[in-house]
């Protein structure tokens, strides 16, 4: 009988995801050999400090701090260190040495994807990254392959587990932001620097990747509008709850068609009010959900674990086994299709609904002044709720659809109006007309 073929795998990083990938690669070696048509042999794991005592049963002799030498011994490199450098240099070296690469590094791909995709294509290597968006949920391969024959109109969803976990705990348990972030970090959801999660940057990276694939266009990171959740107060969450809404950090990628017929792409990330009856409202904990709207297939929903070590390891290993099959059969990787090259639509032109909370003077004429200011900016009021406390009153106004540009001008005018003490908060409303 022929000896089974061996594919040598180098792992870079052994944190939340990497340690689970290594464990499963060793524990399930026979199963993966069957599925891939080759034995996937883990030849080493590059970490910062190989001597550090670890919470795992991984063999000590696999650890090294010499990632560059390790790469040279591998047919496949799995990059799970995170961050831009040295990940970018190491992936470049791996591809140049002829290795195929699997990564979960959305920060790197959102910043340097085009150069890495071009390199992979030039050398005929594979570069897979299903784990980079929405963790365990298969979303990139469905967009690239299953929906390659369709026209995507919109991709909308919750793509960051940490912020969903935090907002969910604040909404359902009344827990503080800080305590919720602490637990999300303990659960392995948060990035090494959780600023990336809470300021929306991680979701921004994912939105850039999703929009690029969905619209066959290189969507640059700086063209994805981004607001995180650090400005969302417990009061806003409670107000939303009373009004039948849930606050969620959303990523929205849309194809826009101008009156002239010209098409463009809008990609944006911000916290928004979602009606409690909307399916996104019941995405709890570290879960993610992505809706894809396409011309022929209609609406599709992808739901599941968006973060977590072992969950994300599933997506990494799925890429590895798929890529190993292709490696065994021979042939180049699947190139990126960026042929549509649609222009970017700025946030000022995007229209949505808004909820505006105002502290106003409780005196005759104040409401009329405020209504006039809305009318002057062509922003139409859908609902208005007033609560009084002494000579102060609070107004919560939900608008009909208006452009971001009109909204920004309205907020500036409200801030300088004598009828208003303070604009307390503005949140967009998504998922209802
Ligand atoms: N944790 C999660 O739920 C998810 C993570 N990801 C991505 O997966 C990647 C890994 O994430 P985690 O495992 O959570 O990170 P982590 O911070 O838990 O682990 C990173 C590992 O890389 C090692 N490392 C970092 N810099 C290094 C260097 N210069 N030299 C050698 N080793 C180095 C660290 O020592 C650590 O072992 C990141 O790109 C992250 O964005 C993607 C989806 C979900
Ligand atoms: N920090 C990320 C991890 C997965 O991508 C998140 O919280 O979603
Ligand atoms: Na995924």
From TrEMBL:
Catalytic activity: L-homoserine + NADP(+) = L-aspartate 4-semialdehyde + NADPH + H(+); L-homoserine + NAD(+) = L-aspartate 4-semialdehyde + NADH + H(+)
Domain of life where this protein originates: Bacteria
Pathway assigned in UniProt: Amino-acid biosynthesis; L-methionine biosynthesis via de novo pathway; L-homoserine from L-aspartate: step 3/3; Amino-acid biosynthesis; L-threonine biosynthesis; L-threonine from L-aspartate: step 3/5
A Pfam family of this chain: ACT
Assigned keywords, A-Z: Amino-acid biosynthesis, Methionine biosynthesis, NADP, Oxidoreductase, Sodium, Threonine biosynthesis
EC number: 1.1.1.3
Gene Ontology MF: a single term: homoserine dehydrogenase activity
Cofactor(s) required, per the database record: a metal cation
Enzyme class: oxidoreductase
SUPFAM superfamilies from the UniProt entry: ACT-like, Glyceraldehyde-3-phosphate dehydrogenase-like, C-terminal domain, NAD(P)-binding Rossmann-fold domains
Residue intervals of the ACT domain: 355-428
UniProt similarity note: Belongs to the homoserine dehydrogenase family.
Function in brief: Catalyzes the conversion of L-aspartate-beta-semialdehyde (L-Asa) to L-homoserine (L-Hse), the third step in the biosynthesis of threonine and methionine from aspartate.
NCBIfam families with a match to the protein in the record: PRK06349.1 (NF004976)
Name of the protein: Homoserine dehydrogenase
Organism per entry: Gulosibacter bifidus
Phylogenetic classification of the source organism: Bacteria, Bacillati, Actinomycetota, Actinomycetes, Micrococcales
